[in-house]
Design a protein that fits this description.
Blueprint lengths: L9 H14 L15 H11 L3 E5 L1 E2 L5 E4 L5 E4 L1 H9 L7 E5 L7 H4 L5 E5 L5 H16 L4 H14 L8 E5 L6
Parallel strand pairs: 1-5, 5-6
Antiparallel strand pairs: 2-3, 3-4, 6-7
């Protein structure tokens, strides 16, 4: 949650993702959560968990940056280039980035230099739609579906609840990668 932005139901989203994963008997996905991650926490968290999929839920900014909060409680904009540098400094385990944040699509081209698959939001997305997308997406991953099918299920989950934002999430992949 950003400093000057509306409060998001991030705990509800994490709970719903966890529930969908636990409902699967395949155990294909393991969820590790980190709360209120500040820019300074990102690298230690990535080193500790070594995720294949990195999911960020929070606020995207209209200028294409991601809204973090620093250790002093001030808003801190993180650009695609800075995020790319952090991801590139890791061990290369991250193949998929889900930026469940408004206006995050603009980061795709830069981040696909390091990633195989990027999922972001083409415009603003409401909190309920973002949560529904995550439920559908991770529920399908837990059932060992492809990234493309999981993405489709995330969008379908939004539509099934009657929220008119099913076209907001966008999937992009690096050239030569079949999600």
């Amino acid at each position: 949650n950003g400093v000057d932005a509306p409060r998001l139901g991030l705990d509800k989203e994490a709970s719903e993702i966890g529930k969908r994963i636990r409902e699967s008997d395949k155990r294909a996905v393991q969820l590790e959560t980190e709360w209120a991650v500040q820019p300074d926490d990102l690298l230690p968290s990535l080193n500790r968990h070594r995720p294949t999929v990195l999911h960020f839920s929070g606020h995207g900014m209209s200028d294409g940056n991601i809204d973090f909060v620093d250790e002093r409680g001030n808003g801190c904009a993180v650009s695609a280039e800075v995020l790319l540098g952090a991801l590139a400094a890791g061990d290369g385990a991250i193949r998929i980035l889900v930026l469940n944040a408004c206006d995050s699509l603009s980061l795709a081209d830069v981040l696909l230099q390091q990633l195989d698959v990027f999922i972001g939001m083409r415009t603003q997305i409401g909190d309920a739609a973002a949560c529904e997308f995550s439920k559908g997406f991770y529920g399908a991953l837990a059932e060992e579906m492809s990234i493309a099918k999981a993405y489709e299920q995330g969008r379908a989950q939004i539509a099934l609840t009657g929220i008119p934002e099913a076209r907001t999430p966008i999937l992009r992949s690096r050239s030569g990668v079949d999600p």
